[in-house]
């Protein structure tokens, strides 16, 4: 395993246990068995390391799915694609929520994180945008009605996934993820006509 991979693994473990705001690069480097200076040879800052954890160490492969999503327009069914997106988003948000939640409690760290995301043209809005772009492509093919507001449909789908993941950390008895993903897809399809 490469030095970088060991650092990403350690970061995922430390960030899950302590939250992003309380995980330090020194602690992450130590958990990986390296110096903090070695960590900075691979990552500019903690935000870049967090983005690597999100892209490389989260379940559901949401990032991979979203990267090729627009090219899936016209294949399978819109319902199937929305179900796949919902399943991946539920897994992703369920896994990452504990890491990111602490960020909101530290205003200066949160501001720095937002600035770093902006500089890298990244952020949570990219999920919503990718789904909206996919739905727009389906709209251009006539598989989604021209009257449908694809940005609103995307926001409803992704927002519901985020809320369900959030609730999953507080309520033990929530709906099964697969059933919920299918219900969300059906509801969005019904809403856009």
Characterise this structure.
Residues 1-61 form the HTH tetR-type domain. GO terms for molecular function: DNA-binding transcription factor activity; transcription cis-regulatory region binding. It comes from Kutzneria buriramensis. InterPro entries: Homeodomain-like_sf, HTH-type_TetR-like_transc_reg, HTH_TetR, Tet_transcr_reg_TetR-rel_C_sf. Keywords: DNA-binding, Transcription, Transcription regulation. The protein has ten helices and no strands. The termini are far apart. The protein has helices at 3-18, 25-32, 36-42, 46-56, 62-67, 78-101, 107-119, 125-140, 150-168, 177-192. Helix 1 crosses helix 2 (25-32), helix 1 packs across helix 4 (46-56) and helix 2 (25-32) crosses helix 3 (36-42). It has 193 residues and is an all-alpha fold. The chain folds into two domains: 1-46, Arc Repressor Mutant, subunit A (Orthogonal Bundle), CATH 1.10.10; 58-192, Tetracycline Repressor, domain 2, CATH 1.10.357.10. 70% of the residues lie in helices and 0% in strands.
Please give a quick description of this structure:
This protein is mainly alpha-helical and 193 residues long.
Which features would summarize this protein structure in a list?
193 residues; mainly alpha; Arc Repressor Mutant, subunit A; Tetracycline Repressor, domain 2; 2 domains; transcription cis-regulatory region binding; DNA-binding; Tet_transcr_reg_TetR-rel_C_sf
Low-pLDDT stretches: none
Please bin the fraction of helical residues.
Answer: over 70%
Number of domains: 2
Number of strands: 0
Topology order in helix (H) and strand (E) letters = HHHHHHHHHH
What is the 3D form? elongated
**Estimated share of beta-strand residues:** under 5%
- Name the CATH class of the largest domain: Mainly Alpha
CATH homology superfamily name of the largest domain: Tetracycline Repressor, domain 2
Termini separation: 49 Å
């Amino acid at each position: 395993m490469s030095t970088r991979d060991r650092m990403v693994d350690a970061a995922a473990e430390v960030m899950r246990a302590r939250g992003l705001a309380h995980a330090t690069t020194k602690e992450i480097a130590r958990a990986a068995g390296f110096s903090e200076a070695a960590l900075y040879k691979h990552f500019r800052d903690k935000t870049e390391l967090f983005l690597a954890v999100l892209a490389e160490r989260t379940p559901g492969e949401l990032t991979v799915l979203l990267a090729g999503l627009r090219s899936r327009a016209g294949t399978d069914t819109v319902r199937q694609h929305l179900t796949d997106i919902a399943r991946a988003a539920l897994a992703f948000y369920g896994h990452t929520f504990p890491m990111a939640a602490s960020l909101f409690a530290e205003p200066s760290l949160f501001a720095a994180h937002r600035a770093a995301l902006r500089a890298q043209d990244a952020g949570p809005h990219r999920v919503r945008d990718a789904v909206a772009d996919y739905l727009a492509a389906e709209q251009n093919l006539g598989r989604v009605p021209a009257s449908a507001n694809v940005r609103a449909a995307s926001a409803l789908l992704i927002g519901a996934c985020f809320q369900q993941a959030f609730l999953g950390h507080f309520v033990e008895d929530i709906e099964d993820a697969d059933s919920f993903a299918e219900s969300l897809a059906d509801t969005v399809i019904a809403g856009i006509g």
